[in-house]
Amino acid sequence: MSEKSLLDQWRDMAYDRNLSKNELETFWSRYFTIEKKIYEQLLDNPEEEVRGTVKELAEKYGQDVMTMVGFLDGINDSLKVPNPIETMDENTDVTLVFDKEMLYKNMVDAKADWLYELPQWDKIFDADTKKKLYREQKQSGTVRKAKKIGRNEPCPCGSGKKYKYCCGKNA
């Protein structure tokens, strides 16, 4: 057995620098197709608490263990209780109990339109809710600068002094 964790093995395979650009595109294209099929099944019954070992879930979804590890890595941030992906082996018990809103937002964040546009989402969220979640996720990554305080404006600490004589003195 390899000394590397399953997750490290997956990442070595998925981000192999020895593969050509074409080989990597083929690998990821194949993976995204598999990922989409698994999400379609999960979203068809979003209330089902899917549990089992890594190996059992791989068999349930008709995948090899390494592909299932990649899927678990991708969905982990959207789970109600994260799986121990850093240390898991094929006999580790894992769950796929996900937070629907978090999963949708994470798909938007990953720019995975083939996932957040799945028709199964229509049974879970109405159009307005999907728009709201999409907007919330997009805005969460927007950095907004605070309004700059002018030197001669009243100090925001409430002292009544000009900013330049109060909190701005040492700035």
TrEMBL record:
NCBIfam families: PRK05590.1. PANTHER family: ADENYLATE CYCLASE-ASSOCIATED CAP C-TERMINAL DOMAIN-CONTAINING PROTEIN, UPF0225 PROTEIN SCO1677. This is SEC-C domain-containing protein.
